[in-house]
Amino acid sequence: MKTGIFYGSTTGNTANAAQQIGALLTGARTIPVKEAVKASFEACGLLILGTSTWGLGELQDDWSDSLDSLRAADLRGKKVAIFGLGDQVGHPDSFVDAMGTLYEMAVAAGATVVGKWPTDDYDFLASAAVDGDQFLGLPLDEENQAAFTEERIAAWVEQLLAEAF
């Protein structure tokens, strides 16, 4: 199954996480989302979408030019996993909200979302990226929990391999 990791990054943290994820998935392509078109999304059997959350729950800016392509893509029969970066201390009531936006778009395009992650070990008030006691993907907090990033990514990739392949 062809895997594409599509990400938007302002400070480099999301790009670094995308590279770490890609290094653990043989043959995965890591693609800045601003370079993606509809066909880029449709060419993959597993899409991993990454974004940071800005302001009060907004997607990272690079996604704005590619949202129409993602919305137009036919993702029926494809798997999508989402990771997001946020600051649970500075923005506890909108922590990784942008992951929720990507989740909604993926589901609307017909994808099956994999890679939900437990909310345990995070300290936030609210998130649009939570369903019950799980995040809709992998949240990373480089501001407050950078020491957990490598371990979380490794465990999440193992989870994806079990769920998606």
The poorly predicted ranges are none
Largest sheet: 7 strands, mixed
Helix content, binned percent: 25-40%
What's the Cα radius of gyration?
Answer: 14 Å
The CATH architecture can be named as 3-Layer(aba) Sandwich
Query: How much strand?
Result: 15-25%
Give the total of domains.
Answer: 1
Summed up:
With 165 residues, the chain is α/β, with parallel strands linked by helices. 31% of the residues lie in helices and 23% in strands.
Could you describe the 3D structure shown?
It is built from five helices and ten strands; from the N terminus they run βαβαββαβαβββββα. The chain is an alpha/beta fold and 165 residues long. β3 (46-54) and β4 (58-59) form a beta hairpin. It is globular and about 40 Å long.
Layout of strands and helices, then pairs:
Layout: E1 3-7, H1 13-24, E2 29-32, H2 38-42, E3 46-54, E4 58-59, H3 67-72, E5 79-85, H4 97-108, E6 112-113, E7 117-118, E8 130-131, E9 134-135, E10 138-140, H5 149-164
Parallel strand pairs: 1-2, 1-3, 3-5, 5-6, 5-10
Antiparallel strand pairs: 3-4, 7-9, 8-9
Helix pairs in contact: 1-5
Which features characterize this protein?
165 residues, Rossmann fold, 7-stranded mixed beta sheet, 3-stranded antiparallel beta sheet, 23% strand
